[in-house]
Design a protein that fits this description.
Chain lengths: 260, 252
């Protein structure tokens, strides 16, 4: 019954979802001359800087190290941008929510979607880098769909939970920034993890579902099969976060209006 | 006998008022430790029941703080009532002043689509009404200008034009006809009166008793969250004027 009601509502307001998603993309690039090009230049520059810093200092001989950095950094960035915007989405749209009924989960959902679309566009730079570094796509590239879907789910789930908490506690934004930093450093974006294997520190990676997604993503890019343990970690976290997010959101959404 | 468009059945709305608004985790923890988290219950609406028939124009009268806006928000679906239920039939368009919740960086044209989508309308439908909306608002030259450069009068003109031209079944007007210049005020009032012919229902909150009498045929009077009078607009308005004293007679 409840589900059916939501499906009807989703259909009725589907144009709102596409409008909100479009708005996010449009406004991000309005008034910037380079426009959507920024989406490509930003990860490119970060990749170059990180390669310069970590590649030279650590004396890496691996010629595909830039690709390693880029793949990690693209996934991490998509997650951090998506969750950050989703987190602020309910508070940010309080003017509208206070005046007219709208399905409230559309705000975090559209925030996640538009950031995700920008991320998909930025994958072009990954393709370019693969070509330049002569890492040619193999049959295993098809696997890329798995981490891409899991990333979207994880971002949406975490975004929903954060959006909900932020309504009640504004300062959670700062805490999330700290958490994101922690996630970044434990995601092995600019270092290899092989030397840590076997040590106790390695267990940290098992606790970081974003790292699991990055790992799956790299498998696809480098053309090797996915490792089941990471697939399980990432899937459980992604699906679990969406279910938890929807549950919390459904439970608390009627109270939002009293706090924003 | 057609079914009523809105049935408000025994609606009560409770708010938990804290002395100060606690909206950060830091404050919450401090207040929790100091045992300062006290809430006082406040019933903004108590056992409100009424029905709105198709074509009725209902005025909601009352002094400030009587619960008028809360009631409108419950009807619009923004608030979920603590007790009771609201049944609605048809398309509801609450008239919102553009700018309070709409995107300031978006142009007038983009905001028309955004507003339409918020009302749950389809793209094709809004497109078919687009020219009419722009025409009525009289903002043709400014339609591609970002909303942040609009005056508040222009924003309300655009908002009014969208809300009325999308053919709603129920129009919710909360103190909105007071904005805009005299010419547009007149135009919007006659637009609403024209819409009566198509059987639109209106919920109207205003302190302008003359305007209320021109537009509405029925009225309810709220006091401290309760209905103290319900009936024809002339009688209820008279009661309201008695309650407020003389000042209101010379309004407008």
């Amino acid at each position: 019954m409840v589900l059916n009601k939501y499906l009807v509502g989703f259909k009725k307001y589907s144009f709102l979802l596409s409008e909100l998603t479009k708005k996010g993309i449009k406004l991000r690039y309005r008034r910037s001359y380079l426009g959507i090009v920024w989406t490509l230049l930003d990860p490119l520059f970060t990749m170059l800087v990180l390669t310069l810093v970590f590649g030279t200092i650590l004396g890496r001989s691996d010629p595909t190290f830039p690709l390693y950095i880029l793949s990690g950094r693209l996934i991490y960035n998509s997650f951090s941008q998506g969750t950050r915007t989703a987190m602020k989405s309910i508070r940010g749209n309080s003017g509208m929510i206070k005046k007219v009924y709208v399905p409230k989960y559309f705000y975090p959902l559209s925030s996640v979607l538009y950031n995700y679309i920008i991320f998909l566009i930025s994958l072009m730079i990954l393709a370019g880098t693969m070509f330049v570094l002569k890492v040619y796509p193999t049959f295993y590239l098809i696997q890329i769909i798995v981490p891409l879907v899991l990333l979207l789910l994880l971002t949406f789930g975490v975004g929903l939970i954060l959006a909900c908490i932020t309504v009640f506690f504004k300062d959670i934004e700062y805490l999330w920034d700290v958490a994101l930093m922690l996630i970044m450093y434990t995601s092995a974006i600019f270092y290899h993890v092989d030397q840590l294997k076997g040590s106790r520190i390695y267990n940290v990676f098992y606790c970081n579902p974003l790292y699991a997604i990055i790992r799956l993503f790299r498998s696809a890019v480098y053309g090797v099969p996915m490792e089941p343990v990471w697939l399980i970690i990432a899937s459980v976290a992604a699906v679990g976060s969406v279910l938890a997010g929807l549950a919390i959101f459904y439970w608390k959404q009627d109270e939002f209006i009293l706090h924003i | 006998m057609p079914k009523p468009v809105i049935v408000v059945d025994n609606v009560s709305m409770k708010f938990n008022l804290s002395k100060e608004k606690v909206d950060s985790l830091k404050e919450y923890v401090i207040k929790l430790l100091k045992r300062e988290l006290k809430y006082t219950e406040f019933w903004a609406l108590k056992n409100i029941s009424f029905t709105l028939e198709k074509g009725d124009r209902l005025a909601i009268l009352g002094l400030n703080g009587a619960g008028k806006s809360t009631l409108l928000k419950v009807i619009a679906g923004v608030f979920k009532p603590t007790e009771g239920s609201v049944t609605r039939r048809g398309k509801i368009a609450p008239l919102i002043e553009l700018g309070s919740g709409f995107d300031k960086q978006y142009t007038g044209a983009e905001n028309i689509y955004l507003y339409g989508s918020v009302l749950g309308l389809s793209k094709g439908f809004i497109r078919s009404k687009f020219d009419e909306i722009v025409e009525f608002s009289g903002l043709r030259e400014f339609i591609d200008v970002p909303l942040k450069n609009y005056s508040s009068g222009m924003k309300s003109r655009l908002g009014f034009s969208v809300a009325t031209l999308v053919e709603p079944d129920i129009l919710i007007l909360d103190e909105v006809l007071a904005v805009g210049d005299a010419k547009f005020k007149k135009k919007s009032e006659s637009k609403i009166i024209n819409m009566f012919d198509s059987g639109i229902s209106v919920l109207f909150v205003s302190h302008n008793i003359k305007q209320v009498q021109r537009i509405c045929n029925k009225a309810i009077l709220l006091e401290n969250g309760e209905i103290i009078a319900n009936g024809e607009v002339a009688e209820v308005a008279k009661l309201y004027v008695e309650k407020t004293g003389e000042q209101i007679d010379f309004d407008e």
